Amino acid sequence: MAYKIDPDLCTACGTCIDECPVEAISEGDVYKIDPDLCTDCGACADVCPTEAIHPE
Question: Which one of 2, 30, 35, 36 has the fewest CB atoms closer than 10 angstroms to its CB?
Answer without folding.
Answer: 36
